[in-house]
Amino acid sequence: MRGSKVFVTDQGADGLAAKPSGDNAADSWDEGDKSVTFDGDWKKAKITEADYTKTFNDADERYAKILSMLLAQAKKAKAGS
Fold first, then answer.
1. What is the span of the domain harbouring residue 30?
2. Do residues 18 and 57 touch, judged by C-beta distance below 8 A?
3. Is residue 51 in some structural domain?
């Protein structure tokens, strides 16, 4: 269903980063009609630095919750097998 899915690109599989370091590609977050690339260039995204930071913090918090829920489900499945 439209708007019910979240797509996360965690390039280093090390959690989201507000901007890439070294040769790493930028992480991104897609949810509903909103897509954000965390490349550190809020001007290119046509938002303020504060909005970029808030968007990153919200995405990072949500991503951590999603990963926690997935881990809990994996543990339940392992315990039941």
1. 6-80
2. no
3. yes
Gap between the Cα atoms of 62 and 51, Å rounded: 16
Which 8-state DSSP code applies to residue 54? H
Distances (CA, A) of 43 to 7, 30, 39, 47, 51: 23, 19, 11, 6, 11
Residue 67 is assigned to a structural domain of this protein:
yes
Torsion angle of the four alpha carbons 7, 10, 13, 16, in this order, in degrees rounded to the nearest 10? -110
Is residue 1 one of the residues assigned to a domain?
A: no
Condensed to tens digits (0 to 9), the pLDDT of residues 2-50 reads 667 899 999 988 999 999 988 889 999 999 888 999 999 999 989 999 9
| Total number of domains in the chain | 1
pTM over 0.90: no
Alpha-carbon gap, residue 64 to 45, rounded angstroms: 24
